[in-house]
Predict the structure.
Amino acid sequence: MRRHSGSAHRGLGEWLVQRVSALYLAGFTFWLALRLGLGWPADYTAWRTWLGGGGVRLAFGVFFLSVALHAWVGMRSVFLDYLKPAWLRFTLQMLTSVGLLVLLLWAAEILLIEARP
């Protein structure tokens, strides 16, 4: 006999996104602080060379994606918990999602421009 999972499993996906993104953000911040603490790139060319590396660009890309996902899940939870008028909740969710999408596209553009020689 299969039992209905009900609300016991509701929100598990959001919980996992929050925890995994938080772990990545913390690890990335630690790595970046350690990397820059050991020595700053000396000039613009050194910065560009360092940021132009595929691994560094990928790490920054995952960082920006993690920030957007973490912010979306957190803000969505706040909106659902505290905003009772449906029109206000919908409006703020749409503004938040469009804003996060614009920021992701901007970050992607920066990372892709940095990839060009």
